[in-house]
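tool=predict chain=A
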Amino acid sequence: MKVLVVDDSEVTLKLISEILTTAGLEVEVARDGLQAINRIREGEIRLIVSDWAMPNMSGLALCRAVRTEPLPGYVYIILLTSHATVEDRVAGLSVGADDFLPKPFDPAELIARVRAGVRVLTAVQK
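tool=predict ok
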């Protein structure tokens, strides 16, 4: 299963990609929400790790778009962001995120949350 990492920071994209690839996951990247939604429409992406604050389409707007578009399958969304107040987490979950991980994050926790998402998606597909 491919994981789409969405962030406008090249450093963050590289870091998260390396963490997930080292954990044995297949990773693609997008630099903003618009690139991400276009990639998701192609039908291969089922799990997203997305930043919140990005140009063109924020992580929140990406969540809304994924939840309102007729897509060929469920897409699991993890918001990974420095917006970490309770209100921020509630806002992210309310617009459609499945999980929320504040920055800075521990790589082991990111991997565990992505693997939990994969388990959910595998169960949904059965």
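The chain is about 50% helix and 20% strand. Residues 2-125 form a domain with the Rossmann fold fold (CATH 3.40.50.2300).
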